[in-house]
Amino acid sequence: MEWPKERAVVQNHHQDSTAWDGFKFRDDDIIVGSWAKSGTTLTQQLIGQLITLGDPNFVSNDASPWWDLRCLPPPAREAVEHQTHRRFLKTHLPTAALPYDPRVKYIYCVRDGRDTVWSLHHHHASVTDLWYQVINETPGRVGPPIPRCDPDQRQYFLDWLRNDGGVWYPYFSHVRSWWNVRHLPNVMLVHFNALITDLPSEARRIAAFLGISVPEDKWPAILEHCSKDWMRANPDKIGSMFGAFWQDGIKDFIFKGTNGRWADTLTAEDCAEYEAKAKQELGADCATWLGGKGPLDAKAYPAK
């Protein structure tokens, strides 16, 4: 089980994988990846709290920018170079487009595709005109602009399913790429279901993976600052961009944080189509894990 040796180039309205060209890793860097809307922000917040042992004023989203976001402002990149705390950066790239360094810890967040798209639809429907302007009009975009959100949630899902990520970027190959490296010692796959059903246990598992020793008296503050209520009530402690790009700020970006909201909209045939596609694209074990129907620790599944 190996990381792809040849790097692919991924470029679209959001992503530019060449942003990683020449990046100088430090020995203890952390990369937080996901397709999207799969617990990435919560994981960033958790890592920031683990690193600072519960500092409520540490702004995790600003400290760990989306490095391959093509319109990331240069000052955000420059700030990372000068950080003195343990660095952690966000990516939405598949492994084939991301550089690998054995000194770095990689955490990949994943969620059942139906829940991902339901969260994504609200995310997309709630963005501001400024968001479209920045994403579509920043020079250097490759491919078509991202269109306005289809208000029909079911059709939005079906377009995503039948067109491999819809207007965003490929989904199943993205998940598969990370699943295929799950047994590397510096890779951890984190399932959204584990984050929302037992955050204390998952937080300890992530801390152990990162080699962070947390005094017992620090855990209450760390976990409080990672709760949905605390994060929604303190947007300035999470990131600086929410108010400009989402109509209701962080309340749109961090919305329900629940699963199964698609159940009253998708038909049995829709779900069967999705599950068949997941099994075909990912294989039985990965599809089971993705759907949250088996062990949530990806390393519990044998390498093949």
From TrEMBL:
<feature type="domain" description="Sulfotransferase">
    <location>
        <begin position="27"/>
        <end position="281"/>
    </location>
</feature>
<dbReference type="InterPro" id="IPR027417">
    <property type="entry name" value="P-loop_NTPase"/>
</dbReference>
<dbReference type="InterPro" id="IPR000863">
    <property type="entry name" value="Sulfotransferase_dom"/>
</dbReference>
<dbReference type="GO" id="GO:0008146">
    <property type="term" value="F:sulfotransferase activity"/>
</dbReference>
<dbReference type="Pfam" id="PF00685">
    <property type="entry name" value="Sulfotransfer_1"/>
</dbReference>
<keyword id="KW-0808">Transferase</keyword>
<protein>
    <recommendedName>
        <fullName>Sulfotransferase</fullName>
        <ecNumber>2.8.2.-</ecNumber>
    </recommendedName>
</protein>
<comment type="similarity">
    <text>Belongs to the sulfotransferase 1 family.</text>
</comment>
